[in-house]
Amino acid sequence: MKKILSVLTAASIALAFGGCGKKEMPKQEKPEAATNVTVAAAEKKTVENTVTYTGEIKASESTSVSAKASGQATAVYKELGDYVNAGDILLKIDETDYRTQYNQAQASYNQAQATLKSARAAYGQAEAAYNSAVASYKSTTNGSAQQSKTQLEAALSSAKIAFNDAEANYNRQKALYDSGAISKSVYDAAVTAYENAKLSLNTAQKNYDLTVGVVLEESKVNAQSGVDSAKAAMNSAQAQIESAQAAVSAAQVGIDSAKNNLNNTVVRAPISGYIASRSANKGQMVAQGVEVYAIKATSTIDAEINVTEAIIPYVTVGTKASVAVKTIGKENIEGTVTTVSPVKDAQTGMYKVSVAIANKDGELKDGMFADITLTIEASVNALTVPSEALLEDEDGTKYVYVANGKKAEKKEVQTGIATDEYTEIVSGISEGESVVLSGKEYLSEKNNAIKIVE
Length: 454
Prior knowledge:
The chain is α+β, with helices and mostly antiparallel strands and about 450 residues long. It is built from four helices and 21 strands. The strands form five sheets. The chain has a six-stranded antiparallel beta barrel.
């Protein structure tokens, strides 16, 4: 036993001394282990920032329908809950008295029209008489009377010439006779000729004065009087026409009023929608101006929501909305902001916003609740990455890891609109670059070996 231990001891010593004579080999580092990652490409798309509020649906238009005429309801056509189109008949009122009033107004109108026709005929006759009087006046002043005057003037002028000749001859013969150069018979002939010429001149002058100064002037005055009388008759006839026209206009007003009253015995729906209430029954007396129906329009409805102070700057009239009504399983219904309150509600501390929602099929009912999603920011054709790819340093700097072969490269980025799903990248990477999604939290600038997995 001792012999065996001695041998082992000697062998151990020999090995120890033998090892001291050899060179030590350098230690090799283990290769870096690759991190399994998934990636997604940076791509362009529309990215929107949205907020969602819950609001109550209300009819965008509600109207009270009252009768414009009073009387007994002879027929009632629509019941509570019925859908009506604008113009549909809702109710009829007994028209007997209104029909009588209309017929009387029609008769008055017809009579006024007849009077107007008669006045126009009288005016036509007066106008014809006036034209005849004017023609007579023109004839008196410019026609045959003027010819008579011209003839008388010619006769008077001829008589004056003859008288002047006879007077000159008489003066010559008298001088000769006084000198004894001619006989008394020749002198007497000259005297006779002179006297005859003088008589003829006086006669012509009297004829002219009588005809032109009296007869023709009187005819002219009479003709003018006839013109004036005919003009007065025509003016009187014109006044009768104007009076008759006024009567026709008044009768037209009366017939229009009576017709309107008659038409008002039929009560029609002013808008399309559902009958919300009915207070009139057949046989019941209906009073003018008293509500008989109420209609709520639902082709377009409104939802009122309360928006926070942080969001209201992004909401304007025309902002698009997406509406979801869970109770009927409807989503992605289009809506548009129609009003934005400029004043904060004192009780809620929020701003009231109204959203108009299309409701062509009528499925949305007054009183339902809807989730209203507003798009407060949008960027079209924006470079985006999945939001889960974003990381942030302690100083707030945002960055992503971009796959570059078997390595991941850290790149700082500037971001824009961010949603839970996608974030807009303003700068830092390019379209098509692959950003690391899962596994990014295990990466660093030194530990950047990656293995892309599906």
